Every structure is written in structure tokens, then in C-alpha cells.
């Protein structure tokens, strides 16, 4: 895996390994909607990563970086793999690394570029930074979309790092929306029960491995810093935030430090916000950070991952890679044999598994095991199993299998499970009563095992012949 020192090191590698056009600088785009719209339009085309500069109303050099893992090639670079690695090769590499991962705790260092600028007291001002309003309908400017929220358990000293949306609420106020079952909320509650505010730090610019691990939710008691160190093969370099024992990345772009009082003491209207499901759902009184200090590098960069409608190519490819690799690992750990590939669509709303059938129960065993990976409050809605001749990373092939190998009367099953508060399909009655249950669909799109050898043959050229055609014509045609 990769060992990028910081976000800028990753950006340099993108241009070195994929070409100068892989990171495109955009000058003069407005923070109000325009940055979000340009990012969305180019993500839908699997276009370049975007570095926005000279943003009206903000100093030149105060920048926003988006679409940073919007393609498989950029994910490969982020993970230290060859840029031309296939999607399934990336999933396999992540799965194998995660399975044998040895957590490495962070290492404290003296060299910290995050301290190049320190704002305290009257100088604290979150509005200095060009936090975008990403969607028409957002209730504010969200500086934190790929952020790291750092807290420490007052009993055990466990350092938790999570990702929560963060909205600028004023010069010295930042709001966070944290679901009640998330680790940071549980840690904060311990402080609140003792009549104290929770010390907290929010990082809004870091390298992609840190951003990914912050969103992965390590097991309770394990720090995401340790997980990131294991994925990197080298410890994360950290420094102590001034006046606290919170470790922050030494080479973060921006760190917002403060305290979070109980919601009963201070709260603010948070949302709405266009979430990754493609809808505006949650809005209400939420937690506030009283900002005491802002630290940032010269020419700071906000790392932005604005949620988009979860189409096939748009947005963050890291999410389907993580969902696919963790599902694949869970399948093998559950005893499912002959897994040939796993992929996730619409971020992770649909999980597709390919297997080589060796018995009549293999397809259902794979479906049940894949659905069993859902954590409480997960949003995975559809699970599909296909034969090994289907490329799970090609939606056209997946739809072909569903449309031609599924008997709607016998091949589709539903089970009940919990879902998230951001689920747009929750009825107003369910939301009001706290009933977050939803159906999950299991789809067997495999050839019927009893007569799969007699299934009608496909009329598609095989891969060896396609390779010959590419060799002959690839220089002249986009094959």
C-alpha cells in the first residue's frame, strides 16, 4: 500500500503516474454551487481530479480539491498499485492486505507543517476558508465531507477517528451530525455525563489512506490511525494538538480544534444536506463545536468529497472498492467457496458477487453470507449473485444476467433488516416512531445449477479473441 506523506504528495503522484492532465486546476469558480456542479459533471464522465483556486471572496491559494478518487486508476495510485490495475485486482489487493494487516500505532514527530499558521482567540475565523455549498438545497457551507473527526475516550484513552459531515455555522462555530450509534457520539456522551464538553479536532485535508480509514469504522477500541498505519506499512506521523492530548496528522492541511458541549447546552439547526443516497433527508438540532484554534498550512487545501447521486461512475470509487473487498473477505471467512469477484454499485446500495457453482446451494449461501456482512444501520439494499462468466464490474453484464437468468417467482427473496436515518424510503410514520427497518432483496441471477450445462449458450466473443482484436486494432480504435 501507499506511504504518501500528505495530500500534496498524493497529488504529485497522480500527475507523475497518470499524466499532467490528471489534476486539473480550475480558477475563479464560485464556492456557492459552482464548485459542486463542476465536480459533479466531471465525476459523471470519470474526468480529472479538480483543484479549485482563486475562489472569489477568498485569498488566492486557499484551495478545494475534489474527485480525488473518482476513477479506478486514481484508487490504484492511492493504494500504491499499478495505475492500470483492473478493478478486481484492486479489490483483491485491498482484501488481501486487510486480511493480513498488522495495525501500526502512529508516531509522534517534531516536524509539523500543519503549524505553519495558527489562529487563536479573536483571529479564529472559519469563514476564511472557501468551504463550498455543494448542492442547491444544502442548508449551509460544508467544509467537512472527507474529514477526520478525532476524539479520545476519557476512560481508556482510545483515540477514535471518524467521518461526519461538518458545516460552518459562524466564525467560531462548526456543526457535526453524528448518529447515536457512532463511536464519536458514544465517546462524547461520556464527557457529557460528567458535565464536561468533549475535546475534539476536525481535519479537513489529509492523504487518501487517512480519509478512507476514517470512514471505515475500525472495531471499538482500535484507532483508525493504527489501521491506516497497517494499510500504509508505516506509522502515521502525528503531533499533539496544542493544549490537549489529541493526536493530529502532522502534515494535515487544516485542523479545527475545540470542544463539543452537550446538545442540551448548545445546538444549532443542521442541514438539510444532499447525502450520498442522492436525497435531502435529515435536518434538525445537532452538536456544535466551539472552535478555539485553527491550524493550517500555507496555501491550505480543503479535501472535498461532495455526495452525488450514486450512479455507476460518479463520485468516490473508494467506497465500492472497500465494500467489495470487505464483502469478499466476509464471504471467504463464512466458508463460501469459489468466489470469483465482488463489486458494489451506487456506492454500496447493490452488492454483486460472482461464483463458480459446485452445488445447488452455492448461490443462496453466497447471498445470505453477503447480506450477513451488513452492519446495523447499513444501507446495502440489493444483493445479487451471478455466475463466473459475468464481469461484476460491468453493469451491462450484471443487468443481462438479472434479465435473463432470474425467475421472478423463485429467484428473488426478501428479508428484514435495519437501515440508516438518511434512508429516503423510510416513511414519515417510521421516522417519527424511530422504526428504521427495511426490506433487503436477495437476487439469484445464476444459471439453475440442475441444468446449467444445458443453459442456452451466449453469443459473445470470448476474451482471448477480443485480446487478439485489441492487439491488431488498438492503436487505431478505442478498444
Mean pLDDT: 88
Largest sheet: 10 strands, antiparallel
Number of strands: 22
The coarse overall form would be globular
Number of alpha- plus pi-helical segments:
12
Percentage of residues in helical conformation: 25-40%
Radius of gyration: 23 Å
What percent of residues are in strands? 15-25%
- How far from one another are the termini? 30 Å
Global structural class: alpha+beta
Residue ranges: pLDDT <50 for 5 or more in a row?
A: none
List keywords for this structure.
about 475 residues, alpha+beta, five-stranded mixed sheet, 12 helices, about 25% strand, globular
Molecular structure report:
- The chain has helices spanning 7-18, 34-44, 72-78, 87-99, 183-193, 208-216, 224-232, 318-333, 362-371, 395-405, 428-433, 463-473; strands spanning 23-27, 49-53, 63-66, 107-108, 117-120, 141-144, 148-152, 159-162, 166-170, 173-176, 198-203, 237-240, 247-249, 254-260, 268-270, 284-296, 301-303, 339-345, 350-355, 382-387, 412-418, 437-444.
- It is α+β, with helices and mostly antiparallel strands and 479 residues long.
- The protein is globular and about 75 Å long.
Break the fold down into its secondary structure elements and pairings.
Elements (H helix, E strand, L loop, with lengths): L6 H12 L4 E5 L6 H11 L4 E5 L9 E4 L5 H7 L8 H13 L7 E2 L8 E4 L20 E4 L3 E5 L6 E4 L3 E5 L2 E4 L6 H11 L4 E6 L4 H9 L7 H9 L4 E4 L6 E3 L4 E7 L7 E3 L13 E13 L4 E3 L14 H16 L5 E7 L4 E6 L6 H10 L10 E6 L7 H11 L6 E7 L9 H6 L3 E8 L18 H11 L6
Parallel strand pairs: 1-2, 3-17, 4-12, 19-20, 20-22
Antiparallel strand pairs: 2-3, 5-16, 6-9, 7-8, 7-11, 9-10, 10-16, 11-14, 12-13, 14-16, 15-16, 18-19, 21-22
